[in-house]
Each structure stands twice: as C-alpha cells, then as structure tokens.
C-alpha cells in the first residue's frame, strides 16, 4: 500500500498540526448512537453478524477521508496511506482475554465477510495480543465492548503524543423509542482532525447503516 508523504510547508493544515502536536498536544473523542434498526434484521435474515458489517462500514468511512489516514510512517515521515484496513479485537470466552486480527478488505461486502469468517476460523483460537501476523503497517484500530451500552468512551494514550490515527470503539446496541441504536466512539488526534472531521465520520457511518441495501444485497 502506497504511503504519500505530506510536504508540511505546503500543507494548509500546518499551523493547526504544529499547535496540537507540539504546543498543546491534544486528542479528543466523540460518541454517538448509530441507528441500525433496519440493518440489524437484514443481517440476521442473511445469517450474518453485525461486527464484520461494522468493520466494513468504518473501513469505507476511513478510506473516504484522508484525515483519518494521516500518520507518521515507521521511518518518521508524515503522510497518509492511500487505503487502510481495520485491525480489530475479538474476545476469548474461556480466559476473558482478547487478541487483535486484521482481514484483507474487499469492496464487495460478501467477499469481505467471507474473508472475515475464514480468518476467525483459522486464527480465532490463537491467544496473545496479536492473533494473525505479520500485521501490515496500514491498519487502524477498531474494538468492541458488547457488554455495555455506553454514552461516552475515552482512551488515555501516553507516550510521545504522535499517534495520529483514529481509534474506533462500538458498544452494546440497545432499544430506544422504537429504534435499535449502536453506540460508537471515535477518538482522533486534534493535529489532523477537527470537530468537522469527527462529524463527517459519524454522519457517513450513519449513511452506510441507512443505505445497507446497496452493499448488503437485499431488496
């Protein structure tokens, strides 16, 4: 996957990037409920799980906006990946630990779903932090907390403050006023994303959930 270098001196975001990276190192999170009232029963009708559908939707949203693909390369260069894939967590029921997995993305959801199923079958019993190696450098983290319908979620990231990629977390879906809602939290670095970009993510994700017929293949 190609990594495009950003020329900081020609980047219109340079003053914001430098301010929120070097002066006031700042990340922020936003949590919103995504309406999956029609998507969930459509998935159940096809015998499909929600989590891979969620991974498919968020990957499409991330790949639609360069701000969510901007990061430092392993060599220290600032830039953005042309496309990214999700590195997602899954739970081990027997010892209550989790592992991370990545699955090759496909624009066609049925293909991606089968890739997900194949990976879980092959690597799902692997214990340890990383179940499938080697993980490509062009991944972004996604996790799920299916035991609680949270109204807010925040990660406290220490270190040098140079982790720029979005971190996406879903919770337990719940019923409210006749709707099925999925809480989704997005955490971003203010150096590369503002409230506008976070709003794009939430609104685009809702569009994918609403327009499920276009990619799920149902009438």
UniProtKB/TrEMBL annotation:
Catalytic reaction annotation: chloramphenicol + acetyl-CoA = chloramphenicol 3-acetate + CoA
InterPro entries: CAT-like_dom_sf, Chloramphenicol_AcTrfase_AS, Cmp_AcTrfase
UniProt cross-references to PROSITE patterns, sorted A to Z: CAT
Alphabetical list of Pfam families matching this protein: CAT
Keyword Acyltransferase applies: yes
Record flagged with keyword Acyltransferase: yes
Keywords recorded for this protein, A-Z: Acyltransferase, Antibiotic resistance, Transferase
EC number: 2.3.1.28
Function as written in the Swiss-Prot or TrEMBL entry: This enzyme is an effector of chloramphenicol resistance in bacteria.
Oligomeric and partner information: Homotrimer.
Family, similarity comment: Belongs to the chloramphenicol acetyltransferase family.
Protein name per Swiss-Prot or TrEMBL: Chloramphenicol acetyltransferase
Organism lineage string: Bacteria, Bacillati, Bacillota, Bacilli, Bacillales
Gene name, Swiss-Prot/TrEMBL: catA
């Amino acid at each position: 996957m190609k990594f495009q270098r950003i020329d900081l001196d020609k980047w219109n975001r340079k003053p914001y990037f430098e301010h929120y990276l070097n002066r006031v190192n700042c990340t922020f999170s936003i949590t919103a409920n995504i309406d999956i009232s029609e998507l969930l029963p459509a998935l159940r009708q096809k015998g499909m799980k929600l989590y891979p559908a969620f991974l498919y939707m968020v990957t499409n949203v991330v790949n639609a906006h360069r701000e969510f693909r901007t990061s430092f390369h392993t060599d220290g260069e600032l830039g953005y990946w042309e496309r990214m894939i999700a590195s997602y967590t899954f739970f081990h029921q027997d010892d209550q630990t989790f592992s991370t997995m990545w699955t090759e993305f496909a624009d066609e959801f049925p293909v991606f779903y089968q890739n997900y199923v194949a990976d879980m079958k092959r690597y799902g019993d692997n214990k340890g932090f990383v179940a499938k190696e080697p993980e490509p450098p062009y991944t972004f983290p996604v996790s799920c907390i299916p035991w609680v319908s949270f109204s807010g979620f925040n990660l406290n990231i220490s270190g040098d403050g140079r982790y720029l990629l979005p971190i996406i977390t879903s919770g337990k879906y719940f019923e409210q006023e006749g709707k099925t809602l999925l809480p989704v939290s997005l955490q971003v670095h203010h150096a590369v994303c503002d409230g506008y970009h976070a709003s794009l993510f939430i609104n685009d994700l809702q569009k994918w959930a609403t327009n499920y017929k276009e990619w799920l293949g149902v009438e």
